[in-house]
Amino acid sequence: MKPVNDYCMDFILSILIPVFNEKYTIREALRAVLSAPYKKEIIIIDDGSTDGTREILQEICHPDVRILYHEKNSGKGRAIQTGFAHATGDIILIQDADLEYDPSQYPELLQPILLGRADVVYGSRFSGHGAHRVLYFWHYAGNRFLTLLSNILTDLNLTDMECCYKVFTKKALEGICIHENRFGFEPEITAKIAKKKLRIYEVPISYYGRTYEEGKKIGWKDGFRALWCILRYNLFK
Question: Which residues contact 78 (CB under 8 A, 6 or more apart)?
Fold first, then answer.
Protein backbone atom coordinates (compact mmCIF):
# COMPACT_ATOMS: atom_id res chain seq x y z
CA MET A 1 0.00 0.00 0.00
CA LYS A 2 1.28 3.45 -0.89
CA PRO A 3 2.06 5.95 1.88
CA VAL A 4 -1.14 7.80 2.73
CA ASN A 5 0.23 11.18 1.66
CA ASP A 6 0.68 9.83 -1.88
CA TYR A 7 -3.08 9.32 -2.16
CA CYS A 8 -3.92 13.04 -1.92
CA MET A 9 -7.71 12.73 -2.01
CA ASP A 10 -7.65 9.14 -3.25
CA PHE A 11 -7.80 7.45 0.14
CA ILE A 12 -10.48 5.78 2.22
CA LEU A 13 -11.32 7.23 5.62
CA SER A 14 -12.68 4.79 8.20
CA ILE A 15 -14.80 6.64 10.77
CA LEU A 16 -15.51 4.62 13.92
CA ILE A 17 -18.54 5.69 15.95
CA PRO A 18 -19.00 3.85 19.28
CA VAL A 19 -22.58 4.28 20.47
CA PHE A 20 -24.31 3.57 23.76
CA ASN A 21 -27.78 4.96 24.48
CA GLU A 22 -27.63 7.99 22.17
CA LYS A 23 -31.12 7.96 20.63
CA TYR A 24 -31.39 11.76 20.82
CA THR A 25 -28.15 12.48 18.95
CA ILE A 26 -27.28 9.52 16.71
CA ARG A 27 -29.28 10.68 13.68
CA GLU A 28 -27.82 14.19 13.69
CA ALA A 29 -24.31 12.88 14.38
CA LEU A 30 -24.55 10.48 11.45
CA ARG A 31 -25.84 13.21 9.12
CA ALA A 32 -22.87 15.38 10.05
CA VAL A 33 -20.39 12.56 9.48
CA LEU A 34 -21.96 11.61 6.14
CA SER A 35 -21.45 15.18 4.95
CA ALA A 36 -17.68 14.87 5.27
CA PRO A 37 -16.20 15.29 1.74
CA TYR A 38 -14.16 12.09 1.64
CA LYS A 39 -14.37 8.59 0.29
CA LYS A 40 -15.29 6.87 3.53
CA GLU A 41 -16.66 3.92 5.42
CA ILE A 42 -18.60 4.68 8.58
CA ILE A 43 -18.57 1.90 11.15
CA ILE A 44 -21.09 2.34 13.95
CA ILE A 45 -20.61 0.02 16.91
CA ASP A 46 -23.71 -0.20 19.08
CA ASP A 47 -22.45 -1.20 22.51
CA GLY A 48 -25.59 -2.83 23.89
CA SER A 49 -27.92 0.19 23.78
CA THR A 50 -31.25 -0.22 25.57
CA ASP A 51 -32.86 3.21 25.08
CA GLY A 52 -34.08 2.80 21.50
CA THR A 53 -30.78 3.62 19.79
CA ARG A 54 -30.52 0.11 18.39
CA GLU A 55 -33.96 0.37 16.79
CA ILE A 56 -32.94 3.64 15.12
CA LEU A 57 -29.75 2.06 13.79
CA GLN A 58 -31.67 -0.90 12.37
CA GLU A 59 -33.59 1.53 10.15
CA ILE A 60 -30.41 2.99 8.60
CA CYS A 61 -29.56 1.83 5.09
CA HIS A 62 -26.66 3.65 3.44
CA PRO A 63 -23.84 2.27 1.27
CA ASP A 64 -21.17 4.05 3.34
CA VAL A 65 -22.47 2.83 6.71
CA ARG A 66 -21.88 -0.49 8.45
CA ILE A 67 -23.46 -1.19 11.81
CA LEU A 68 -22.06 -3.72 14.28
CA TYR A 69 -23.79 -4.77 17.47
CA HIS A 70 -22.56 -5.81 20.90
CA GLU A 71 -25.16 -7.86 22.71
CA LYS A 72 -24.26 -6.28 26.04
CA ASN A 73 -22.62 -3.04 27.08
CA SER A 74 -18.86 -3.54 27.32
CA GLY A 75 -17.50 0.02 27.14
CA LYS A 76 -16.16 2.51 24.63
CA GLY A 77 -12.75 0.86 24.49
CA ARG A 78 -14.28 -2.48 23.57
CA ALA A 79 -16.40 -0.83 20.87
CA ILE A 80 -13.29 0.81 19.41
CA GLN A 81 -11.52 -2.55 19.41
CA THR A 82 -14.38 -3.94 17.34
CA GLY A 83 -14.14 -0.96 15.01
CA PHE A 84 -10.38 -1.36 14.54
CA ALA A 85 -10.88 -5.02 13.65
CA HIS A 86 -13.35 -4.16 10.88
CA ALA A 87 -11.81 -0.96 9.50
CA THR A 88 -10.39 -1.24 5.99
CA GLY A 89 -9.52 2.42 5.29
CA ASP A 90 -6.11 4.03 4.88
CA ILE A 91 -6.85 6.45 7.73
CA ILE A 92 -8.92 5.68 10.83
CA LEU A 93 -10.73 8.36 12.84
CA ILE A 94 -12.70 8.03 16.09
CA GLN A 95 -15.94 10.02 16.35
CA ASP A 96 -18.29 10.09 19.35
CA ALA A 97 -22.04 9.98 18.72
CA ASP A 98 -22.96 12.64 21.30
CA LEU A 99 -22.44 15.84 19.24
CA GLU A 100 -19.68 17.11 21.56
CA TYR A 101 -17.27 17.04 18.61
CA ASP A 102 -17.83 18.63 15.20
CA PRO A 103 -17.16 16.54 12.03
CA SER A 104 -16.73 19.75 10.03
CA GLN A 105 -13.22 19.85 11.53
CA TYR A 106 -12.08 16.66 9.79
CA PRO A 107 -10.00 18.63 7.24
CA GLU A 108 -7.86 20.16 10.01
CA LEU A 109 -7.48 16.79 11.72
CA LEU A 110 -6.48 15.00 8.52
CA GLN A 111 -4.15 17.64 7.12
CA PRO A 112 -0.93 16.62 8.96
CA ILE A 113 -1.37 13.03 7.75
CA LEU A 114 -2.24 13.99 4.19
CA LEU A 115 0.82 16.23 4.05
CA GLY A 116 2.94 13.24 5.01
CA ARG A 117 4.07 14.78 8.30
CA ALA A 118 2.13 12.70 10.84
CA ASP A 119 1.21 9.11 11.59
CA VAL A 120 -1.21 10.06 14.38
CA VAL A 121 -3.22 13.22 15.07
CA TYR A 122 -4.94 14.13 18.34
CA GLY A 123 -7.58 16.80 18.71
CA SER A 124 -7.14 19.22 21.58
CA ARG A 125 -9.92 20.98 23.46
CA PHE A 126 -7.36 23.07 25.36
CA SER A 127 -5.46 24.79 22.54
CA GLY A 128 -7.64 27.84 22.20
CA HIS A 129 -9.55 27.26 18.96
CA GLY A 130 -13.27 27.66 18.26
CA ALA A 131 -16.23 27.48 20.63
CA HIS A 132 -15.93 25.69 23.97
CA ARG A 133 -18.85 25.18 26.29
CA VAL A 134 -18.08 26.22 29.88
CA LEU A 135 -18.78 23.28 32.19
CA TYR A 136 -17.08 21.32 34.97
CA PHE A 137 -13.89 22.69 36.52
CA TRP A 138 -12.92 19.37 38.12
CA HIS A 139 -13.30 17.52 34.84
CA TYR A 140 -10.99 20.06 33.25
CA ALA A 141 -8.49 19.81 36.12
CA GLY A 142 -8.64 16.01 36.05
CA ASN A 143 -8.02 15.91 32.30
CA ARG A 144 -5.05 18.24 32.61
CA PHE A 145 -3.57 16.21 35.46
CA LEU A 146 -3.95 12.90 33.60
CA THR A 147 -2.45 14.43 30.47
CA LEU A 148 0.49 15.79 32.48
CA LEU A 149 1.18 12.42 34.11
CA SER A 150 0.89 10.67 30.76
CA ASN A 151 3.31 13.16 29.21
CA ILE A 152 5.85 12.61 32.00
CA LEU A 153 5.92 8.89 31.28
CA THR A 154 5.63 9.03 27.47
CA ASP A 155 7.89 12.08 27.00
CA LEU A 156 5.24 13.67 24.79
CA ASN A 157 3.90 17.22 25.11
CA LEU A 158 0.20 16.62 24.43
CA THR A 159 -2.32 19.07 25.85
CA ASP A 160 -5.37 16.77 25.75
CA MET A 161 -4.60 13.06 25.98
CA GLU A 162 -8.27 12.25 26.77
CA CYS A 163 -9.71 13.93 23.66
CA CYS A 164 -12.09 11.76 21.62
CA TYR A 165 -10.69 12.90 18.28
CA LYS A 166 -7.80 10.60 17.44
CA VAL A 167 -6.74 9.86 13.86
CA PHE A 168 -4.34 7.11 12.82
CA THR A 169 -2.86 5.79 9.62
CA LYS A 170 -3.67 2.12 9.33
CA LYS A 171 0.04 1.34 9.46
CA ALA A 172 0.40 3.22 12.76
CA LEU A 173 -1.97 0.75 14.44
CA GLU A 174 -0.13 -2.35 13.24
CA GLY A 175 1.02 -4.48 16.16
CA ILE A 176 -1.03 -2.55 18.74
CA CYS A 177 -3.41 -4.65 20.81
CA ILE A 178 -5.93 -2.79 22.98
CA HIS A 179 -7.01 -4.28 26.32
CA GLU A 180 -9.04 -1.55 28.01
CA ASN A 181 -12.81 -1.82 27.63
CA ARG A 182 -13.85 1.62 28.90
CA PHE A 183 -12.25 5.05 28.83
CA GLY A 184 -8.88 3.58 29.80
CA PHE A 185 -8.47 3.21 26.05
CA GLU A 186 -7.20 6.80 25.85
CA PRO A 187 -4.09 6.46 28.05
CA GLU A 188 -3.47 2.93 26.77
CA ILE A 189 -3.36 3.90 23.08
CA THR A 190 -1.29 6.97 23.94
CA ALA A 191 1.32 4.89 25.75
CA LYS A 192 1.51 2.38 22.93
CA ILE A 193 1.88 4.85 20.08
CA ALA A 194 4.53 6.69 22.11
CA LYS A 195 6.53 3.48 22.44
CA LYS A 196 6.38 3.02 18.65
CA LYS A 197 8.04 6.45 18.18
CA LEU A 198 5.34 7.55 15.76
CA ARG A 199 5.01 11.09 14.46
CA ILE A 200 2.23 12.63 16.53
CA TYR A 201 0.55 15.97 15.88
CA GLU A 202 -2.14 17.88 17.77
CA VAL A 203 -4.87 20.05 16.25
CA PRO A 204 -7.06 22.50 18.21
CA ILE A 205 -10.79 21.73 18.02
CA SER A 206 -14.09 23.14 19.22
CA TYR A 207 -15.90 21.36 22.05
CA TYR A 208 -19.64 21.33 22.68
CA GLY A 209 -19.64 19.48 26.00
CA ARG A 210 -22.67 17.90 27.62
CA THR A 211 -23.88 17.80 31.20
CA TYR A 212 -24.69 14.55 32.98
CA GLU A 213 -28.37 15.41 32.59
CA GLU A 214 -27.80 15.58 28.83
CA GLY A 215 -26.16 12.16 28.76
CA LYS A 216 -22.48 12.54 29.68
CA LYS A 217 -21.18 9.14 30.78
CA ILE A 218 -17.57 9.42 31.98
CA GLY A 219 -17.25 9.65 35.77
CA TRP A 220 -14.77 9.84 38.63
CA LYS A 221 -14.22 6.06 38.62
CA ASP A 222 -12.99 6.35 35.04
CA GLY A 223 -10.52 8.98 36.21
CA PHE A 224 -8.98 6.58 38.73
CA ARG A 225 -8.89 3.84 36.09
CA ALA A 226 -7.13 6.21 33.69
CA LEU A 227 -4.53 6.92 36.37
CA TRP A 228 -3.87 3.20 36.75
CA CYS A 229 -3.73 2.74 32.97
CA ILE A 230 -1.13 5.50 32.60
CA LEU A 231 1.11 3.70 35.06
CA ARG A 232 0.38 0.22 33.77
CA TYR A 233 0.92 0.76 30.06
CA ASN A 234 3.92 3.04 30.41
CA LEU A 235 5.86 1.26 33.15
CA PHE A 236 5.03 -2.38 32.46
CA LYS A 237 4.99 -4.46 29.30
Answer: 47, 70, 181, 182
